[in-house]
């Protein structure tokens, strides 16, 4: 009889990232009520705040990407509005998940 494999533990949530060469802290709040949205980006402090109470890990990842796009837009002086940034987190998450070989190729030295 084959042994059932134990589900692997979820990787820890990231607590920092680099955006355009700057170190950004990532903080999680237990309650989304602590934030005005599911995520917030503070360019002055290089800090991203995320609501840990997102319904699932995919939503949390999409929100992190969304906030990274806000940070990039602000840092580059692009002036993207919420309606422009909103679909980017979902779209890039989908592309990254659907194209792991291309992601690996892009990141290869």
Determine the mean pLDDT: 87
Oligomer: single chain
Q: Helical segment tally?
A: 3
Number of domains: 1
Order of helices and strands: EEEEHHH
- Measured distance between first and last alpha carbons: 44 Å
Strand order of the largest sheet: 1-2-4-3
What are the key terms here?
3 helices, alpha+beta, 19% strand, 109 residues, four-stranded mixed β-sheet
Characterize the structure shown.
The protein is α+β, with helices and mostly antiparallel strands. It has one domain (16-107). Helices cover 40% and strands 19% of the residues. The protein is built from 3 helices and 4 strands; from the N terminus they run E-E-E-E-H-H-H. A 4-stranded mixed beta sheet has the order 1-2-4-3, covered by helices on one side. A hairpin with a 2-residue loop joins strand 1 and strand 2. The longest helix has 19 residues, at 57-75. The protein is globular. The chain starts with 15 loop residues before the first strand and ends with a helix. The mean pLDDT is 87.
């Amino acid at each position: 009889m084959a042994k059932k494999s134990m589900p692997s533990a979820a990787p820890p949530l990231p607590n920092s990232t680099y955006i355009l060469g700057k170190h950004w802290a990532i903080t999680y709040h237990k309650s989304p009520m602590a934030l005005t949205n599911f995520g917030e980006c503070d360019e002055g402090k290089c800090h991203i705040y995320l609501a840990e109470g997102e319904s699932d890990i995919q939503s949390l990842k999409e929100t992190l990407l969304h906030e990274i796009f806000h940070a990039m837009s602000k840092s580059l002086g692009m002036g993207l509005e919420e309606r422009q940034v909103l679909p980017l987190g979902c779209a890039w998450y989908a592309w990254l998940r659907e194209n792991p070989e291309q992601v690996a190729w892009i990141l290869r030295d």
